[in-house]
Hints:
Arc Repressor Mutant, subunit A; alpha/beta
Amino acid sequence: MSPWRRQRVRVGLVASEPLRVEGLIALLEDDLAITPTVIDDPVRADLSAMDLVLLDAGSTDLLVELLSIYRLKYSQLKLMVLGAETSFSAIERVIGAGAKGYLSYTASANEVRMAMDVVLDGSIWAPRKVLARLLETRAGGPNGTSAHPPRVTPREQQVLGLLASGRPNREIAILLGIDETTVKAHVSRLMRKFGVGNRVGLTLHEQARKLLMNQ
C-alpha cells in the first residue's frame, strides 16, 4: 500500500465534458481513500487544499499555460493530464510544463488508479514508449550525442535523486551537508553531462529511468 493511501487524498477535476466528469467522479468515488472535487473555474480556483489535480486536455485551449501557472503557484501540487494526444513531442511538452502524469482517453480504470499511485508517490507516469524515447533523447542514443548514458559520481547521483523528488537546492544542501553553491555546481555539471538546459530535463530523465526500471 502506498504511503499516501494512509490518509484521504483530495483530487481536483478540471473537465468540461459532462459524461467524462461523471465517469471520473464515479471512478474516484469508488476508492474510499479519495475525495474528488470538480473545479469549475480552473484559473481562479484556490487549489491549495488539493493533493492532486487531474486535467482534461480537451477542457482548455491553454493547457500548457495552465500547467505552468499551477506549478509556480502550488509547488507541492501533483498534476496529471488526460488527453487524446499520443505523440512523444506533445506528451513531453505537457510533462515539461509541470504535469507528473499523462493518460490517454482510452486508459482503463485500473490504469488511472496505478498512474495516480505513481504520481502521488513522486514519480512520473507516461506511456512506456514515451519514457523510453525520453531516456534516449535525454541520455543520448541514435539521435543523441552519445550511445551510452553519461557517467555520474556518487555525489552527483545523490543530488540527481533529490532533485527528481522535487527538493530545492537549499534543502538538498542541508540533507547532504554541503553548501548551496556546491549543489548549484553539481546541477550545472549534470545538465552538461545529460545535454539538457534546465532542472526539468534532469528531473524527467531520472524519474523516467526509475519508472522504466519498475515496469
